[in-house]
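By way of example, we now present a protein record of this kind:
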Amino acid sequence: MNRTLWVGASGMIAQQLNLDTIAHDLANVNTVGFKRGRAEFSELFASYQQAPGAPSADGNSPIGLYVGHGARPAAVRRDFSQGSLQHSGQPFDFAIEGEGFFAMELAGGRLGYTRNSSFQTDGQGRIVDNQGRLLEGDFNVPDDAEVVEVSSDGTISVTVDGVSQVVGQLLLSRFVNPQGLESLGGGLYGQTDASGDAVTATPGQEGLGRIRHGFVEQSNVSVVEEMVNMITAQRAYEMNARAVSVADEMLETLNQVLQ
């Protein structure tokens, strides 16, 4: 019975992580560029009481006899599928249509990578996100710019006194294994050995997506799907709790018999 208690407890712990992940996704349903997560689990080791092919009274056992020890969290997989693009009309909103990340300059010289496509300029004409982090690249948008245009290949041009001029070039980055990126919070991801080195190029090259000027990428969280997942996780949690309760009742009955 003690094994049942621990197996049920492991299932409850696993489903709690599942619910935590779902709640985090729902909390960020309106976060620009957010990517949903999915909790994944694996079976805990099994203890064999009789191995397959072991000698038996009448020959060899064709199958084994083993007892599992529950489940454990294995990973939280990030879904980097494209979110829907919403027209904003803002001059410094430029969403990625396809694969790729924007590179942001972080403290200490490290780069963070994001799908957040909402930017603005600071007092020096540099392009920054809503936390003041610099978009990597050589950009200088004049204060008196009348029109800002960003082409699908990332070329940034402005119109000043009726004259158009190029002021910068957007670059995008992609990774061989984006699942290996480290989540830094705030919609940022960091490069790791598991993700591989960033492949950086202009939009539309090296398998990278293209730029949609005046659009933002919405979260790829589906509220309906997450609600269904939440109900499923809740039922799984209840069943594991019920297993713990039944094991406790059986132990209580055994104690009464032995008294």
Q: What stands out?
A: The first strand starts at residue 37 and ends at 43. The chain has a mean pLDDT of 89. The radius of gyration is 27 Å. The longest helix spans residues 223-258.
